[in-house]
Amino acid sequence: MTWEGMNEAEVIIGIDLGTTQSLVGVVDAGFPILLADGQGSRMTRSVVYYGRDGAAAVVGGEAWRRRVTEGERTVASVKRLIGRRAGDAAMAEGKGGARVAVGSDGSLGVVVDGVWRSPVEVSGEILRHMKEIAEAALEVPVRRAVITVPAYFNDAQRQATKEAGQWAGLQVERILNEPTAAALAFGLDKLGERSRVAVYDLGGGTFDVSILELNEGIFQVLATHGDTQLGGDDADLLLAEWLAGQMDGTGHSAGESPLLTGAGWEAMSPQERGRVLEAAGEAKHGLSFSHEVEVRIPFWRGNLSFVRMVQRSEFEALILPLVERTRGLCRKALVDAGLKPEDLKSVVLVGGSTRIPLVRQVAGGIFGREPDTSQHPDETVALGAVIQAGMLSGALRQMVLLDVTPLSLGIETFGGLMNVILPRNTIIPARAGEMFTNAVTDQPGMRIRVLQGEREMARDNWTLGVFDVDFEKGPKGSARVGVQFEIDADGILTILARDTKTGQDKVVEIRHAAVDVTEAKVEEMISQSVEHAFDDMTERQWAEASTKSRELLDAVSGALRQAGDILDDTERHRITSGAAEVELALEAGDLRRLKAANTTLDAATETLAAVLVERAMEEAMARRGLV
Ligand code: ADP
Ligand code: MG
Hints:
alpha+beta; Nucleotidyltransferase, domain 5; Substrate Binding Domain Of DNAk, Chain A, domain 1; six-stranded mixed beta sheet; four-stranded mixed beta sheet; 26 strands; binds adenosine-5'-diphosphate; binds magnesium ion
């Protein structure tokens, strides 16, 4: 090795080569980042278009748009074919697009214009495109990469992926399991030895669940299950078919929408289907953040547009069977790993489709806990690949030598409590976040007070800054604002508040305050927190219990209004006297009494809650014409 060569750590990029989307990134100045293409997008459609007369292949959004009119020239979801042979289940998996065929050696590929193209070549085109995005963004040549694959990929599939990288002019330093990458991005390697975690990944075309165990800093896959025919694309299709049914006059189109007859999914041309599918995809995305969206397809018939409101509940009823299919697979994975849900330290959600609230709910139900959704679901696998690449190139090695946060950083939440986001002694650079929502209907926004210190109550900590985030008007719990704390290697704290509904960002930078605290002040803060530990704890518990009481009282009065009629007198009495006791305990300021009263009231409302859920189910079934 030459002297110069030793000075300059060579760039290694990380690539998530997804079935539907691919991403690329690199560790830059000690921090993993994802790179955007010329249009500013960090996600590239994993679609390749082969033009006429040997023109260079087109990759990404442009290719994806052409699939509607020139389906036979576009290749989508090539990941389903890579490393497979004739006779593998994959043969039946074609979902339109270029024709799948068997090569002379028995491997699967596609035929475009009579030319046989191997999945290695098609995936290679995608990888080359990702390499070019990185080169344009970094302005240096890139030669080495880490590429992710599903945990269930066999040797042939891994080998073929590696060859695709070589085809693209990349030296593949490592083939990394997607769940392992996700676990790295969630920072689960910081959990203790032998920690077990579950990674639930619902992407565009596939579902995977993996149980991992941390052994000497390395993740081992204990079990993995999945369904290669289950993902967001299926949700798009279900919604599209349903919308087509609405046009057929079988449903009732509201408002300005004309009732169109004779359409129906089966009768539509590929172009028409493409338009409906696109509208369905957009509506689906919207429904992850709002309870209803308008689907509008302009000039559907002559100058008549198709317009219809779609409720989240309608969409959920359509996809519930789909989402429920993940349940059995998760159970199997747990059984194979010989674990119970309680044995897991963490459950993380990955894949764009886990933005769907119903998916989060079902996943939470399966594992009996609130899953961790703190990372961007469609970016975690890529980020993990980048982190792994950074470790290999040495760009991340400095991490252990770097500073730690001298005091905890967090924000004030309900009841004046300190909510820690980056605990004391976190190694920097670091990043962590949490989701917040509106506590009351039509709440205009929330004030974010950035705090530093070890005390339980916000007022006893130091305020580093204050800023406001606006909410879109909506019912209680509908706003979704992610607050992310990021400290770079220089100790600069940046706070990003993103309204995931409107996509609006607010970024606040707090220079050096995060690490520039004198030793004496740190000592003082810590000794105070020890001194007041007992009082602080009591106060926190009171704040938490009373917040819970208010939520319970609110929910009970709402539920009684909605379904109070079906309760018998004994039950009604249990609930109303339970609520009265909570109010009395609140007034008395008695923590133990309040906790007991909360528990009693919670238990008393079980029947009522069950009835409400049943009603909602019946309504959903009735809408689908099932009862
Ligand atoms: P893959 O790894 O399979 O390529 P991704 O993890 O990128 O896929 O997920 C892509 C899927 O996520 C697509 O089906 C897309 O429609 C879906 N998706 C992205 N954003 C949302 C959203 N806001 N709501 C629902 N689904 C979403
Ligand atoms: Mg994926």
